[in-house]
Here is the input.
Amino acid sequence: MKKLIYLAIFLLAGTSCSDFLEENPSSLMVDSNFYKTEADADAAIVAVYDGLNDQSNIYYRGFYLLSELTTDNAECGQGVANANIFALDGYTYGPVNDRIYVLYQSVYKTIANANVAIDKIPAIPIADTKKNRLLAEAKFVRALLYFNMVRLFGDLPLVLNQVTSLDDVNIPRSETSKVYAQIISDLEFGEQNLDATNASGNLGRATKASATGLLAKVYLTLKDYPKARDKAKTILDNTQLGLLDNYADVFTPQNRYNKEVIFSIQNKGNTGAGNGFAMALFIPRSTIALPGGGTVAGNSADVPTEEFYKSFKAGDLRKDRTFFTEYDAGAGKATFRPHWYKFFDPSSIANLGEGTLNYPVIRYADVLLTYAEALNEINGPSAEAFEAVNKVRRRAYGKAIATANPDIDLQGLSKTALQDAVLEERRWEFGFEGQRWFDLIRTGKLLSTLQAKGNTAIKDYHVLFPLPQRELDVNKSLTQNKGYTN
Here is the structure.
């Protein structure tokens, strides 16, 4: 089904078999006869969401390699064999790097799917409410991807329509301000037209809260702190959303949909189709024994740093859901160096491509910490800013979320100290969720943090990644980010 959808999405307008075989089978699925019905519109949006689930190239691993591996959170494990991944870890990468290229290419492919849906759905006879909701979903995905890409690469080719001609391929980079303006426009459309909540048949789709939550993060990145504060407050005032009492419960297979997850990438495991969360790369390699013989087929490629593992304070319950160092699959306990545990699914231990966990993109805890950061930047430390952070901290230590706790709560910090505390809290809260590099860049602390921990290779220009050389080779309108040479 996925392949059929992709075929429908990527065919250029006007293409037909008559160009090649002088035949015109009526059953051929081409651009001109696909976007006709409500079912076609639904299929187009499924293809847009499906692009996000390209785990090797987008979520999770595509972004993981750039947003976790390049930070103090992660490092290459023994299962890594690709020199381009070692280059990312060691800050020796350049424009010729296959991991940067496949992320870039895959993201633009999914943006292309979104653009096709946005261009074609208006002409399909559907009730306006649903039509606008479908358009808003496509625009949300486009905004989400452009938000990630503009933070990674800076100025970008801003493609907003279906490409139907080779004349439309060589698009120059647009300034970041223009990219952000489009992101904001797409998300504001989402706030107006997405569903407020998702019924059982639409679980996992973007909602109004998804758009508002992402806008809060966009404004925080742009240092428009009043707007970041206001958007975050809208989420915090939504009584249908909130922190779960137990941090680990956010990441359990039986609790894939909960009030804390505002938007997540969907995985459907244990179907036999390999559409689940792919766990092999972060599971210990040939270490965990299986009851029927043999060992779990992990690869130990994506692993946390020992420093990150040891940075958690005593009593922080997030540590035992973020990492594991021992496991018994029914044939005896195995012990190993720290590995990621957050998205481990015991039901798929014998088939690591069938994990049932979703991958969160925006969580309520993220909004709380966004709110605290914005308030602190506007007026310095305040009771409200401290309370937003302290709710996250209390949950982390197993305390009542809404009850002050002098043993856990932050108080009396300066503005600078609270900035540092929020950044540190985000590290512990969102390990393995693809946030660390973005947080360090936003706060201007990437270089100083990594240099203080022994990284001598990082340079000033590493605040942006290079555009892939293959893109510059085929699109002569592109220019490279400073500091990078082939």
